[in-house]
Design brief:
It contains eight helices and 14 strands. A five-stranded mixed beta sheet has the order 9-10-14-11-12. It is an alpha+beta fold. Strand 5 and strand 6 (104-105) form a beta hairpin. Helix content is 26%, strand content 19%.
């Protein structure tokens, strides 16, 4: 219990560097440091800048949303991340900040959970769109086909998970955020001898949006699946289409959650 209390308190330290005025993770000592620029690459951020690290609280996205003004606040900030300029400032060593869409840097691990955070904000269709865009634009079947450094296979792992249709946003959580499968059918052979199958009906490069879903033949409205649902085996059937279904996966009980509770 002592270890738990120690580490759960540490897991909330991100709150100490979130500047509620500017809306970014802002380097500080006793006070926030002067000369702040979210586009600036400096020694205050490891292989990144404030844009990328502002979304790095996968263990407590509910807490991060509260700092940003709620679900819509997080979604709006995510919109800005993907649409702002890709120009970087600051120190010359920027080799790790690659694969840019706006200030989203797919070439480095601190960004890899970000595209799926729209699910947590109740706007799953935006996760579906951006995940498919990343797979389409930032992966090529060439010797230099990865957008960044393949540290321990992470670049490929992101693609494999995303191509199947889900991603583990937070280690230790039993929830996997749903995205948009790049394959029409994927079969996962489980260690318990069962199989979990994901199908994407009407799937294509244009039909990237989930229109409806069924799990085990029953209507499914959640924008995530759990570890136990996968291990139980069965089939998740997704029906895809060319336009967003802005009501699917958006209900209060249909979104994934990570939260640090007292």
């Amino acid at each position: 219990k002592d270890d738990y209390n120690f580490f759960i308190k540490r897991a909330e330290n991100y709150r100490q560097v979130f500047d509620t005025v500017g809306g970014f993770m802002h380097a500080r000592q006793k006070h926030f440091l002067k000369g702040f620029d979210p586009y600036k690459v400096s020694m205050h951020y490891t292989e990144g800048n404030a844009w990328q690290y502002t979304f790095y609280a996968p263990q407590d996205l509910s807490g991060l949303m509260s700092l940003m003004g709620g679900k819509q606040g997080l979604a709006t900030k995510l919109d800005s991340l993907f649409t702002t300029t890709s120009k970087l400032k600051g120190i010359k060593r920027k080799a790790d900040i690659t694969g840019l869409i706006g200030q989203y840097a797919h070439g480095n691990e601190p960004s890899h959970q970000i595209a799926y955070e729209y699910d947590y904000a109740g706007q799953a269709w935006k996760t579906q769109a951006i995940v498919r865009r990343i797979m389409r634009e930032l992966y090529r079947a060439e010797p230099d086909g990865l957008a960044g450094n393949e540290d321990c296979g992470q670049m490929s792992a992101w693609y494999v998970f995303s191509a199947i249709g889900f991603y583990p946003v937070c280690p230790g959580s039993d929830q996997y955020a749903l995205g948009s499968p790049a394959v029409d059918k994927a079969i996962i052979h489980l260690e318990n001898g069962r199989t979990f199958t994901i199908t994407a009906g009407n799937n294509s490069d244009k039909n990237v949006y989930i229109q409806s879903a069924k799990l085990g033949g029953e209507t499914y409205t959640k924008s995530y699946i759990t570890y136990q649902q996968i291990m139980n085996g069965g089939t998740l059937d997704l029906k895809m289409g060319p336009t967003p279904n802005t009501s699917w996966g958006t209900g209060e009980n249909d979104v994934p959650v990570t939260q640090i509770k007292p």
